[in-house]
Amino acid sequence: MDLKEKLVSSFLAFEDGLDLDHPVHEERSNAIKNFETKGFPTKKDEAWKYTSLRGLQKVDFSIFPKQETTLEYKDVKKYFLHEIDTYKIVFVDGVYSSYLSETTHDGVDICLMSSAFSKPMFKQVIEVYFNKVASKDESLTSLNTAFSKEGAYIYIPKNKMPKKPIQILHLATGNEAALMLQPRNLIVAEDNAEVQIIERHQSLTGNEVFTNSVTEIFAGKDAIVDYYKVQNDEPTASLVDNTYISQKNSSVVRVHTFSLGGKLIRNNLNFYQNGERIDSTLKGVTILGDKQHVDHHTLVHHAQPNCESHQDYKGIFGDSSTGVFNGKIIVDKIAQKTDAFQQNNNILLSDRSTINSKPQLEIFADDVKCSHGCTIGQLDEEALFYLRSRGIPKKEAKALMMYAFANNVLESVRIPELKARINKIIAEKLGVRMGFDL
Amino acid sequence: MAYTEEELKKELETKEYEYGFYTDIESDTLPKGLNEDIVIAISKKKEEPDWMTEWRLEAFRAWKEMEEPEWANVTYNKPDFQDISYYSAPNKKPKYNSLDEVDPELLETFKKLGISVDEQKKLAGVAVDIVMDSVSVATTFKKTLAEKGIIFCSISEAIQEHPELVKKYLGTVVPQKDNFYAALNSAVFSDGSFCYIPKGVRCPMELSTYFRINQAGTGQFERTLVVADEGSYVSYLEGCTAPSRDENQLHAAVVELIALDDAEIKYSTVQNWYPGNDEGKGGVFNFVTKRGLCEKNAKISWTQVETGSAVTWKYPSCILKGDHSIGEFYSIAVTNNFQQADTGTKMIHLGKNTKSTIISKGISAGQSQNSYRGLVQVNSRAENARNFSQCDSLLMGNRCGAHTFPYIEVKNKTAQIEHEATTSKIGEDQIFYCNQRGIDTEKAIALIVNGFSKEVLNKLPMEFAVEAQKLLEISLEGSVG
User: What domain of life (chain B) (predicted)?
Assistant: First the structure.
């Protein structure tokens, strides 16, 4: 049975355990219908021109994990940002692990989608926000909506800020031969609220994992949301990450994506600016080797005047890896005085690596400042020579330059410990010790 | 800009579309519709050899299986391909030996076009092949060119006289089945130009083709084939106009350029098909396939000024097959009123040390949509490929749109690719500066647009550059509030 049929038929079994009268259930039913009609995207779809899901569809994924597994903190400690105190929402094979987590309802709600769906106190928030910005048309998002049950639920009321950053960690134990996960996250920061979130997907064995994740983020007036995605998974783990962000007046949302490992990663990052004086930042570092494939699809929709967006994606591609960047900026007629900037720089290290880049602008307003730049090249030989002439070995010199190349993106990371951690991973990837703390 | 404002205004009031006259020349038109019989009939009328008829039929059969492409960022009512007459030739066409024998009415037409044949002859030494309603009616300077061994004639003549060359090169760069419109063109093209520059010859003058759709309800399907043999050089110009009509006319041309080792081809186009009236009614659908192939050390340079057509769909491309070959693309696309343009280029780097440059300037006004769509592809064996792309858009008013869709696909680590795009409007401070120095707003805008387009205009041959500059002004007239 192919994966699509399997998913569609599993939906009936999935419904069994649910409250069918819940308003969310109608969304689920509509979504599965949409997925059934559309199926998995193929290379014939313009948006999936460079990324194929065919290989994944041949794998016999379990849709629901058969058994619950408990993990010891010491075994998975290294995947946490353990240097600082944080709230933690941890899932093991898609199931919430209360043992590893630290949630709160003290002024802010940092808990689970499953409780948000079932408890009456969250009903209003779910009604107002759930599936409101996520696409009802895109087939993989629909698939996730259909199976939406568990994930992180974060609600920050007006003028509040959680005491510490929040970590969302999805662990896959590999107890199943092949597992498909569909976490659904909802993050709401009301007016003037602020929150910092770190999200990570991690497989613990060499068994195949396919995660199809959807995150909805709502930023109210003057709210500030910092979202960091750490993607440094095993070479058997694939991830399709759909993130939809809706922003109101004067809000600031920054999303940093660090794609440093995994088999196939597809990031669909969509910003919708529904107010004025909004600031959106999208930054990413991609460092790949082997046969890894990373595809960044970004969309920034400027629908109101006086907004800004900043995009900066850096990629370093070695071995037979493939990188894709597709950035789209839409500026509506009324969105005058928009300042949109998009940059994509890439370095190819090997003759077998490929980069496909497509920075797009669609502009309907005349008084705007929009630009994009895209470069593909190598490390500057002269700079390399300069470093070597000062006694820095070739390998380190190269690493240093690549580090500098990626640094623009790291600069704006606002959690120092996370920055240090990412630096460490980058140094590991580049195969050197930097010799200085970054 | 030798006009005073008054003169310009007056002129513009009186002529909406300067070239929108219709010459009543009896023409020999085939019935509307398309089937194998029509294809054979066209081939018969042209007295073509069997291999050519077969070649056309092959294309026609492929075309029947194909679907019209829909990916371009344009919307229009699809033409009904059975409601078009695929052949329309000015009647009474004996073989002329000198201009005196040409139908005086036809000559009158050329005079109106401002490219009167004899005037041209006297003037700058431009050899012109005029294609009216897709049949070549005059080729000047043929004898002068023949002395150098250069062949410049209509493609139907070339099929008769130089079948070995046509057979060898036709369809090698744009195969019959390349795309929907190329297949259609391959099946029904009725004429076009053929040019062959022998080894080591530098063509002493600019070669020029002039296209005009005259008859109502006809499509224009011309085919151009330019072959520059080893070490030769040619500069080729192409101009287009069509009379104003309410219905949409179809223009689906194919241009193939072949630059053999060390050769250079410079191909310039000023496209000024009827763009439709200011309510978006009528106008020409311009669906063109243009492609060039570069062998070792060869260079192909495309320059285009696109101001006309209701819908443009055009991507002059370069296949950089030989090592050290160079491809260039310079474009200005101006859209006003309800015009839609989806244009750009493809640079396919196959050889080592290949270079390409793309400079694209889009200007949109009124309610028009202007898109740049380009592809830069570096093959895994194309060591040290270099590309520089720049796409700038200028928006006038907030009812128009500017879009860029650049595709960059790189499979070689030694490639160096740069792409830049900006979108802006004419700054109030810029206009203020001009006003302050006594230049009125209208002129200031013309000045700024000219400056914006300078990089591309500079690439045009002199006579063309002047015309192009004038066209820019006319196209944008009244677009500034």
Answer: Bacteria
